[in-house]
Amino acid sequence: MSQLVPFLTEDPLPPSRNKRSPIRWFVTALTLIALVAAGFLIYDFVRGLSQSEQSSIVAGQPVLIVVNSGDSLGMLAVSLAEAGVVTSTDAFLAAAELDERATRIGPGVYSLTTGMDAAEVIDAMLDPATRAAPLVLPEGLRLDETVIVTSDRTGLSRAELDAALANPVGLDLPEWADGHAEGLLFPASYEIIPGRTAEEVLGVMVRRFNIAADEVNLEKRAKKLGYSPEEVLIVASLVQAEVSPEDFRKVARVVYNRLAQGMKLQFDSTVNYALKTDVLMLSNDMLATDSPYNTYVIDGLPPTPINSPGQEALEAALNPASGDWLYFVTVDPDTLTTKFTADYDQFLRWKQKFQENYADSTEPVQP
Question: 237 to each of 97, 184, 271, how far by Cα in Å?
Fold first, then answer.
């Protein structure tokens, strides 16, 4: 340390010998001039691109923008720029940075126009009038009803949809479904994407069912009950058709109790399915219908589900209520009040009550 002390001083350092060098000043000035020139060149280039991009867009042309589930704002910006709705991805992202509502833009199909201001795009995509109405499939639709609704909303013909169902190789049906799509077109809300084929549209519905089946652990829990996944799905469809949700688990128990005792199910909903009707009071002729779906005639479950049940009905079929009930009657068709019993005579009394209430309803009696 003692050897360093003589070299340490608080006096100012001596000036550099090159401080006033003309060559050094010349190099510095030349560098600054080059940087400024490069900046102007880059600015002119970017401005030229922007002007060229703007001039190539014909404003006011209708455009459909599809936002898929999971798309980021960056992906949306690319779609908007490629379609000519905005001049660049940066323009939209800059507007989105200033408007936090942009994060609320959800999946769907949006009707926009080319040449829009980026801020206007955000306003438009948050306006429900701009978004195409989704395809909504309620719980309990039969396969033929699902085809009708899907055709009406998507523009696909019924023949196209029926053809895809008849050859369901690309629908991703579960192996246990044995090629039958009944019960597997899951009730949900679906975005209508232009250009999709019948196979693609129906495939989305089946994949949505597969998600629901995984969520309720259908295959494992069905095996634990002593039934196949398809049999549980059939029970769920019966439950969906017969009563309101608060009684799903009780009706599931009735089904399993009657199957265990070798009793015919005698469900009106299965006869309605066979005849493609929806009536509350079945005539004697209807009850005698010769069909594998007529559970007044056949033993056990019908061969396939009779509708597409929702997840609540699936859960009820997998987790039936505890009880010894063998009969149930919806005594009031208006309120859907349902009574359950294991006593046949009690069942007959409630059935009489239903018939009295039905006589006061407006539905015409079937011949």
Answer: 48, 10, 13
